[in-house]
Design goal:
The protein is of the alpha/beta class. The protein has one domain (3-158): Rossmann fold. 32% of the residues lie in helices and 24% in strands. The strands form two sheets. Strands 3-1-4-6-5 form a five-stranded mixed beta sheet. A two-stranded antiparallel sheet has the order 2-7. The longest helix has 15 residues, at 137-151. The protein starts with a strand and ends with a strand.
Amino acid sequence: MQTLIFGAGNLLCSDEGFGVHFIQYLEKHYRFNDDVELYDGGTLGIMVTHLLEDADRVFLIDVVDVPGEPGDVFRYEKEEFLLGKLPIKMSPHQIGIQEVLTLSELRGRTPDQVSLFGIIPQSYDAGVELSPLLEVKLAGLAELVVAELRGYGHLIEAIA
């Protein structure tokens, strides 16, 4: 089973780039077999529909605009996207993952499992670094995602 870990965000707007920083963190700290693809999706939006449609399982990592405190992490599943239970815009991207999944659903090509791990940003200020608050969230979220992937039978090696 092919699993895609997709990090979205704009690296030029500090915490907005959390998903991309997450992919970089995984690449630095873990080694994955070919059945797991790490993808820095940046702000590509609709241009990556094919990647989502080709995977059996997708983990999306992005910022979300929902009630809560900066640094709070939420998990949403495919049904919540497609039933309209999430805000229209989960993040500032022009065309978001929600729209991409809706297009894939219309084409009958959504993956079996789609999970979004969304984090509330602290800052959208110009800058290529995460706020200290979100920087410390990378390791814990990585451990959570890696543990779930191992539970599905993916072999993942921690890099010392």
